[in-house]
Amino acid sequence: MSDRNDTIRLSDFQVSGSAASGTLFSVTPQKLRVTSGIEVDDPDAFEFDFPICHVKVKRKNKDIPLPKYSKDGDAGFDLAAAESGVIEPKETKLVGTGLYVAVPKGFYLAVVPRSGISLKTSFWVRNSPGTVDPGFRGEVCIVAHNSGDEPHEYASGDRLAQGIILPVYRANFIEVEELDETERGEGGYGSTGVASV
C-alpha cells in the first residue's frame, strides 16, 4: 500500500464494533493505528473514511430537508427551523426542526450553536449542548434564546444550530468512603485565576 492514491477503509479490517456503532481510531505523528492493531507508516500517504453511525430520520413533512454536512470533514450538520417565527428580547423558546431521529445506543445527538449566528446576532442556544438521548423519539428542537434588545426573526429553513453525533460512556458508579487526593483538591470555580501561568 505504498501508492499515495490508495484508500484504506475501516470496513476492510476486522475491528471491534460494528457499522452501526462506528469505530474509533487515533493518529500519531509517525503511525496510524486502527483499533484492530494494524499499523501503517506515513499516515499522510493514505485517506481514511470517517467512522459511520447510522441514524434513522423521520421528517414532519417532505419540505423539510434531511440533515446534511455542509463540507466534507465537518463535525456538525445543520439544524434548521421548520417554521418561521420571532424570538422576543430576553425570551427563550423552543424552535422545532421538524426532524425526529433514532440515535443508536452508545451515541447521543448534541445540539450546539453555529459560530456565525452566535457571533453576529443576539441568538444563541441556551442549553448548549442540548442532549438528544438514544431513547428519545420526539421532535428535535432548539432551545433558542434572544439576549438582545430587539426581536430576532427567523424564517423557515434558516440554519439556527448544528448537531453533532458523539459517543458516550455508560458510568458504573462505585460508592467509596474517601476519594484519592490530588494536587487540586477541592479548588474550583475560578480558584486558579485567569492570568497566564
Protein architecture, described:
- This protein is 3% helix and 34% strand.
- Residues 1-38 have low confidence and may be disordered.
- Strand 2 and strand 3 (31-33) form a beta hairpin.
- It folds into two domains: 7-48, no CATH class; 56-167, Distorted Sandwich (Deoxyuridine 5'-Triphosphate Nucleotidohydrolase, Chain A), CATH 2.70.40.10.
- The strands form five sheets. The chain has a four-stranded antiparallel sheet with strand order 6-9-13-11, with no helix packed on it. Strands 7-15-10-12 form a four-stranded antiparallel sheet. Strands 2-3-4 form a three-stranded antiparallel sheet, with no helix packed on it.
- The chain is mostly beta strands and 197 residues long.
- It contains one helix and 15 strands, in the order ββββββββββαβββββ.
- 16% of the residues are buried.
Strand content: 25-35%
- Coarse structural class: mainly beta
Rg for CA atoms = 21 Å
Helical coverage, percent range: under 10%
